Structure formats: structure tokens, C-alpha cells
Amino acid sequence: MSLLRPYGDTTGDGMVQVSFTLPMAHSKVAEGAAAQLAEKMGIQPALVVHAKPMGPDFTFFVVYGPVRHLVDPSLVEVVERDYPLLTAKEVNARVKSTLRRRLVVVGACIGTDAHTVGIDAILNIKGFAGEKGLEYYRELKVVNLGAQVSVPDLVGHAIEEKADAVLVSQVVTQRDAHLLNTREMSAAFREAFPPARRPVLIVGGPRFDESMAAELGVDRVFARGTTPVDVASFLVHRLEKRAS
Amino acid sequence: MTGKLDLDPVLVRRARVLARQVGRPIVKLARQHTTVSVERATLRLAGLSGADPDGTPWVNRLADAVRADVGLEHGLALPVWDALVRGEGEDLLVLAQKAAAGSVRFRLPDGRDATRAQAAARRQVGAGIRRIDAQRKARERLIRTMGDAPSQPWIYLIVATGDIYEDIPQAQAAARAGADVIAVIRSTGQSLLDYVPEGATREGFAGTYATQENFRLMRAALDETSRELGRYVRLTNYASGLCMPEIAALAGLERLDMMLNDSMYGILFRDINPIRTFVDQRFSRQVHARAGIVINTGEDNYLTTADAVEAAHTVTTSQLLNEFFAKEAGLADWQLGLGHAFEIDPDVPSSLRLELAHALLARELFPKAPLKWMPPTKHMTGDVFRGYLLDGFFNLVGALTGQGILLVGMMTEAVVTPWLSDRDLALQNVRYVLHAAGDLQADFRPLPGSFIPARAQQVLGESIDLLERILEHDRGLLDAIADGTFGLMRRPPDGGRGLDGVFRKAPAYVNPATDLLEGTA
After folding, report:
1. More confident site: A109 or B511
2. Is B265 a catalytic residue?
3. Topology (CATH) of A88-243
4. Same domain, yes or no, for B107 and B185?
5. Pair B82, B190 in one domain
6. Total domains, chain B
7. Is the Cβ–Cβ distance between B329 and B323 less than 8 Å?
8. Which residue of B lies nearest to A130 if distances are taken between CA atoms?
């Protein structure tokens, strides 16, 4: 593919539109400052088409103009996730056809960690970032054990509920507690289950490194910004792989 | 305004009778129980505040100590004030500190000791109730002297930085830009904390902790801005989650003006135990009634988790139940900000007509309630331009159906927490639509028998069917909640969080707060 410029109404015109706020009162100088910013962004000439004061200290601008930069799609690098992102409907349908029953997810914060923010964002129907949690998925049965669950308790519940997957959230990272707890947890599951029967182990939290799964003995690590659909899609992907 | 939909008055009456039948056993259940949070709220009304060096509130420390000695089924008032009368501590704070250190033993007094303890508790809790009364009068006086919101709907804007000291200038800026109501969103996860954090807080997750000090700071700042603007700017927070009764009490004490407060939200969306929720609900609504606080119910949540057309009748059903529970707790019509939302998929044909039908149904069923009209969230995609148009239609439906409280929709919903410019653009949208529409609602009257009245009648009919289905269960609403009648969530009465904080009241149960709020004292 060749080099590209943005398209307004003519090939190669490079037209873009941006809007932003500057923390200054509206004046001719403010409009000039907006044009200056746009030009530094590569828009030249910058056309300040709209400037509106927002209170005494801020001004909102809309700027149009041609951008001088080119883009080269052949140089774009993307990190592909190794499983496709599904919609809630697709997750439900594929769980149904793979398992012929509801998929059981047991979730908890382990150790002394009382921060259920993460596990609740993923599990509670209320969800996170406008996305519903796993409870919302008809074909998922969610058992949220809440905070400060001990590892033996978690294993016990996983056995009792016949869990297909276990989700553990760790927010507190003092003295690497999140890593120690996770290793303890994965070891306990390896001891309690034969490899083929062991639930899929997933750990998540804001300070985890996604590449550490093998080292921690879990199937997947999710880091900051993970939403329920990421987790649901991964579960489907992993269980389909297991079933095949 | 009434009579635009030709609703059959017999059906409307039937809907209310059914709601009462569904609600009554729940009220009975609520009267038979108390919870740790109701008891702690009583201590807060009596003036106990602050926390130990670990941040555990003194009300929790004292309640836990009493619970360990004598249980909570008799309430906290008797054992706590018995200990004070016995001279175990000169005041509640000292008593709580000694109890935390394990140097006080609590007992259940009887005879004259019980009478004395009860009288002492009444005096002290009564002072808290009087402070709530004084705050209500202060609100009324401020509205009289500085003026009220200029028109309806009241324009409701959200701030949510996590840091109360950032929230304050944002809230003041929003008020100056035209907001009539400021809501401070709570930190994610606060609803599941079994204590109310203490003091001014500067870090939260996607919101700011509800604390007494944060309430006080924000109300003081908005009082200052109200004076500057010549209109009283209202403040909103959330009486929900495991500490709903305590937060309601703090809201009354610190003169918050509106509180999110839904009869079933915690059960369905937060997996809080149903009995815990209904007991806490009733107490918190009694406090709100006394404090002159307008409640906002959470029906919008039904539409974000289910299809907004298919689930339209669940909104109506929930509104009817919320109305029943609210009135039973002493709230007046003007305090019922019953919720509903503009959440129909814009690709559905005639979605605007459907939205109008649903919004008008709420308006006509609850003619005296200031309905809370919630903007689209589910179908906001990140295409901010399309979102801006959708918000415009949302505002138009609000104008056409006489909504009382309009939560301003943000075109950047689901993209970022609102920027300064997002709020400004959103307010321009609201102002343009309300200004352009003028009193269009006076002219707007769907043809009898046309699409809009037919759809409204259908939704009312479905909501009556749903209430009847609930009544068919052995244990009515409790069983219906347990078997997933509401949305997809199954919430059995012996499940969910907070059940270990629920107690069946003993015959000798005493709670002066409840007595005073119910007017039986």
C-alpha cells in the first residue's frame, strides 16, 4: 500500500478537523494560540473555525486544515490478541454449543486483599466502562466469593461448584503480595486437580505483567483496562480448545 | 397534562393495588428485622463520628463490640446507653474507644435500667433528628432567600474525579455553566464496603468516596456558588450499598438535597442480600422523608442490562414498587424522582415514538412526581457526533413529556470521563432543545388510538401482568427476585452480601431513631 494523507473532499487534500480547549480567556490572542497549536500538530494553514468561551478561564476551539504528515500503512505494527473478541451473544451461543450447559466461573480476591473493585468490575452485572459484567451472560454461572478468600476456601468452592474457570483479582502489591498469592493459588489448584480437570486459572489486577502467565502458573494474566468481554472471549477460546 | 394517553383509570388503580399487595409483605419483613447499618446509623444520628487509627469508624467498632457481647437483635440503643448511664464512658466516643480496647462489657438492661437507658438514647438520637430538621429548614430558607432553579426540568450534572478537592471547582464550574443539580459519583466498590470511610478523600476509583466530610465540603462550596448565582444549587449522592442507612443519615445531617435510592438496585445489580436491602431501604427512606430529600430511583439500570423495548414494563413495575415503598416510608410525591431512561436501540424503527410513549406513560402514571430522565448510554458508541444527535432527541423527549430532573447526556459517554468541553457542549444541547421547544408539551397530544397511546397502554398492561406473576409466587417478591423474574439475576433471600448483618428483632428491641422517624415516640 502506498503513502496516504487524510481525505476531506479531494484526494490528497490532507484535511483534518480537531477540537480542543485552552485554559485561557477567549481573545484574539487565544485564537492565535489555537492556530499555533494546530500548526505544531502539522495542520497548515490552520483554520480556527469556531472559538467559544467556557467561563472566564477557558476557550473551546474547532480547527480545520490540511495536515502535512503522511501515513504508511505498511509500517503499522499491531499486537494481535491470540483469540477473537466476541459479543455477549456469541459468547452465550458458543458456550452452549461447546459445553451444553452453563459455564461456571468462580471469582475471588485472595489473601488479605479487600479490594473487590477489579473482580466486581469483571463479574458484577453492573460491569465496567459501560460493559456488562460476566453475570450478564446468560450461559455463564458466576459465583463471586468476594474479598479475603483463603486459597483452600477458593479450591473448595471451585470443587463444589465444578468450576470451569477461576478468576482471581489482586490489587494490593505491597511486598509483591499479588505474585506470592497467585503462585500459592496456582500451586494449590495443580495439587487438587489432575491437569485435564483443572479449571482455567485467570488472574488480574492493575500491576500485573501480561507476559507472566507461565511463570505464575496460570492460564492468563489480565492487566489494567481489561473489560468483561476480554475475559469472556478468552474463556470461550480456551474451553473450545480444550474440548476439541 | 393528564389524559394524553387515554389510560384506563381502572387499570391504573389495579396497578397500584397490585404494587401494594406485592410490597406489603416486604414492609412487614423489614419491620421485623434490623441490620448492622441501621444500628450504626442510629449511633451516627446520636453524634458518634470519626475512626480509629486504621480508618475503621468508631460506629463500627462500637457496634461490633456490642454485637459480640449481647447480639444486635435488641438494637444498639439499650446496651450502649445502659453502659453510658453506668458511667462506662463519659460520651459515645470514649465508650467506643474503650469498647474497641475491650475494657467495657455490655449487657441488656431491664426494668428501670432499661427505661433510663432508653430515655438517654432518645435524647441523644433526638438531637440528631433535630439537626436534620434544622438542615431541612435551612434548605427551605436558602431557596426562599436566594431563589430556586429557574425552570424544570432541573439540569443534573455529574462530577467524578475521585478527589474531593478537584470535584469542588468542577462542581462550581458546572453550576456556573447552568447545572441546577450536582451529583458526585461514588468510587467503584463503595457500595460493597460495610463501613463509611472517614474524612476528606483524594483518591477513588472512577468516583469519589461518600464521606461525611466530603458531603460537608461540597455542600459548603455549593452554598457559596449558590449565593453568587442567586439560585440554590442542589447536591446529590448515593444512599445505596451496604451502608445505605448511614449514608442517608449523613446526607440528612449535612443537607444533601437528592439521593439515589432504589428499592431493589442493590439486590439485583450488586448482589446484596434482599432482606438486608429491604430493611436498609426502609430506614434510609424514612430519613430522606424527614430530611426533605428527593430520592432518585434506578430504573435506568433495567434498560442498560436488557432490551429497552422488551423490558419497558419492568421499568413501570419498578416505579410502581418504588412509589409504594417510598410512600410507606413517609416520602411525599414531590420527593419521588422515579427513574427512567432513553435507551432504545436507535436502529429500531420508530424508536423516538416508543421513547415518547414510555416517557409519557411514566409522566401520566405519576403526575406529581419529579421524574428523573436518564440519557442514552448503551447505544453511545464512541461516534461522538451521532451521540450528540441522540442526546438532542433525548432532550426533546424530556421537553415534550414534562420531566422533572434531566441528567445531562454526554456525547463522550463510553469514551472518556467528561471533559470540560463535553459538559459545555452537552449543556448547549440541552439549552437549545428546551429553548427551541418552549412549551411544546402543551401542544403535544398524540391522537387517541394512535401508536403512542397504544404502546403506553401495552406497557402498562405488561407491567400489570408482571405484578400478577410476582404475586403468584409463594413468597411473592422475594421468590420472584430469587427466580430471576427481574432481568437475568437470580437473588435468593438467603444469598448475597451482608446477610450476616441482618437480625430478627427481639420483642424488647429498641431503636429511638426508628421511633422518632415513624412518629411513634
Report:
1. B511
2. yes
3. Rossmann fold (3.40.50)
4. no
5. no
6. 3
7. no
8. B414
Q: Which residue of A has its CA nearest to B428?
A: A54
**Chain B CB within 8 Å of residue A135 CB:** yes
Which residues on A lie below 8 Å from B268 (Cβ)?
A: 125
Domain check: are B251 and B339 in the same one?
Answer: yes
pLDDT recorded at residue A77: 74
Rounded Cα distance between A41 and A39, Å, is 5
Cβ <8 Å between A120 and B192:
yes
What distance in Å separates residue B135's CA from the closest CA in chain A? 31
Query: Chain B contact for A130, CB < 8 A?
Result: yes
Angle at B508 between CA B102 and CA B474, to 5 degrees: 110
Check whether residue B268 and residue B370 sit in a common domain: yes
Decide if A126 is catalytic: yes
- Percent of chain B at pLDDT > 90 equals 87
Which one is predicted more confidently, A10 or A224? A10
Cα-atom radius of gyration of chain A, to the nearest Å? 25
End-to-end Cα spacing for chain A: 38
Q: How confident is the model at residue B434 (pLDDT cuts 50, 70, 90)?
A: very high
User: Which domain covers residue B156, as residue numbers?
Assistant: 152-237
Residue A167: DSSP 8-state:
E
Query: What residue of B is the nearest CA neighbor of A59?
Result: B421
Separation of alpha carbons B227 and B223, rounded Å: 6
Q: Is residue B514 part of a domain?
A: no
Q: Which bin fits B112, alpha (ψ -120 to 50), beta or left (φ > 0)?
A: alpha
For residue A79, the model assigns a pLDDT of 59
CATH 3.40.1280.10 is held by the domain A1-77: no
Q: Which one of B4, B372, B378, B505 is the catalytic residue?
A: B372
State the pLDDT confidence band at B487, using cuts at 50, 70 and 90. low
Whether residue B380 and residue A146 make contact (CB cut-off 8 A), yes or no, is no
Q: Is B137 a catalytic residue?
A: no
Average pLDDT over residues B121-129: 98
- In chain A, where are the structural domains located? 1-77, 88-243
Q: Specify whether the CB–CB gap between A47 and A13 falls below 8 A.
A: no
pLDDT (mean) for B373-389: 91
The secondary structure of residue B233, as a DSSP letter, is P
**A58 sits in which H/E element:** strand A58-66
Residue in the structure block whose three cell numbers are 429511638:
B512
What distance in Å separates the CA atoms of residue B521 and residue B518, rounded to the nearest whole number?
Answer: 8
- Report residue B513 CA to chain centroid gap: 19
β-bridge partners, B33: B504
Q: Are the beta carbons of A117 and B205 separated by less than 8 Å?
A: yes
> Alpha carbon B345 to chain centroid distance?
27
The model's confidence at residue A112, banded by pLDDT at 50, 70 and 90, is low
Given a contact cutoff of 8 angstroms between Cβ atoms, the answer to whether B80 and B99 are in contact is: no
Q: Is residue B440 included in any domain, yes or no?
A: no
Mean pLDDT, chain B, as a whole number? 94
User: Does B520 reside within a domain?
Assistant: no
Cell 471451585 locates to: A158
**Alpha carbon distance B472, A2 (integer Å):** 68
Tell whether B85 is covered by a domain.
Answer: yes
Contact (CB<8Å) B192/A125: no
